[in-house]
Write a structure and sequence with these properties.
The chain is α+β, with helices and mostly antiparallel strands. It is built from four helices and 20 strands.
Length: about 375
């Protein structure tokens, strides 16, 4: 046997057509051509037989390799098809060929199986290796060679379509997971409650008494910690006036589901523009607070405002949290109100008129 064609299972159709055409183009007998799939990992004994020592057997390895632009020529021993090629590749290995016999001939030639011109060059190269170039007869078989190249191109198109289908599936699954993750992040099933401001203000209030350091509140898209909206507090702080040195906003928990806050961690995030920090030596700050049905209070620890950042404030109703404060008789099991206090820093006479933002209230 002079020629062995090795191929993968998925390329068997191309390999079979290639074998038949190779036999007819070069003029070999059927006994001189063999085929090997991956199951045959060793060469047949005939390949190794001493009777073939005078003429080196030719091994042709057919594999799928994909490229944007099919090659129209045979490639040299140091060249490889483009990594992204949509075509079949036939690699010719000249097993056992004496380098002295063919010093100017490459030991390996790789061609694009989807190019009829490259296939013709391949047939010519094989005939030359077997020293039967005189038997090469290409013209009558050119239509069959083009059909073989078309088969390779069609096989590659199917592969590309399969790749695109798999990619579409991966992208769809990824998008679904991202959407689910985003929803869980905004509205998680864990925990006991969360107030975002994407759809509504949830009934947050401030004192109607005048003068007041908080002039009003409304949903805003100016900044948000999660999603697109936060609650904007319109502040008018003045440390030189006791009635404007602090303000409170609050929420009636009796309108909320699962609002038993006793011994549960409560947190919120507050955003302060740089000007809202006040005196850097005595910065403005925040405290979460709760009130029970008898209007007795617990205030959480003071947290300094940070310029142009979200700051977390927290409280555990029913548990002392120095330097916070708790009224005598406060009952955490009867909490009806949750709120935020915004104050000018102690000893500061800073003035600030503008927004502060509240978002992501959790318990």
């Amino acid at each position: 046997m002079k020629v062995l064609v090795a191929h993968s299972v998925q390329d068997a159709e191309f390999a079979g057509t290639f074998l038949t055409l190779l036999r007819d183009v070069i003029g070999l007998d059927a006994s001189e051509i063999g085929s090997s799939s991956p199951a045959q990992t060793h060469d047949p004994p005939s390949i190794r037989s001493a009777s073939l020592a005078a003429r080196a057997p030719v091994t042709i390895k057919i594999l799928s390799k994909y490229s944007n632009q099919p090659h129209s020529r045979a490639l040299g021993s140091d060249e490889e098809p483009e990594a992204s090629s949509p075509s079949f590749v036939a690699t010719v290995l000249l097993d056992g060929l004496s380098a002295k016999r063919t010093p100017a001939s490459p030991a390996r030639v790789t061609v694009d199986g989807s190019s009829s011109f490259a296939l013709e060059e391949l047939f010519g190269h094989i005939a030359g290796r077997l020293e039967i170039g005189h038997a090469l007869n290409l013209p009558p078989h050119r239509k069959r060679i083009e059909a073989l190249a078309s088969l390779a191109r069609g096989r590659s198109g199917q592969h590309g379509a399969a790749l695109r289908a798999r990619l579409t599936t991966v992208l769809a699954v990824s998008a679904a997971l991202l959407l689910a993750g985003t929803y869980a992040w905004l509205y998680p099933p864990w925990g006991h409650g969360r107030l975002e401001f994407e759809e509504e203000g949830h009934g947050w209030l401030t004192s109607a008494d005048k003068p007041s350091a908080c002039l009003g509140l409304e949903r805003s898209k100016a900044v948000a910690r999660r999603g697109r909206y936060a609650l904007e507090l319109d502040m008018d702080l003045d440390g030189s006036k006791p009635e404007l040195a602090a303000a409170e906003v609050w929420l009636d928990l009796r309108q909320q589901k699962d609002a038993d806050l006793a011994h549960r961690g409560v947190s919120a995030w507050v955003y302060t523009p740089a000007q809202a920090v006040g005196d850097p030596e005595h910065p403005n700050g925040f405290q979460l607070f709760v009130k029970d049905e008898h209007w007795r209070s617990q205030y959480g620890p003071w947290v300094n405002a940070v310029a142009d950042e979200w700051t977390r404030v927290e409280l555990v109703p029913g548990e002392a949290s120095p330097p916070g404060s708790i009224d005598a008789g406060f009952d955490a099991t009867l909490v009806t109100t949750l709120g935020l206090k915004i104050s000018v820093g102690g000893g500061s006479h800073a003035i600030y008129t503008g927004p502060i933002y509240l978002d992501s209230v959790d318990w």
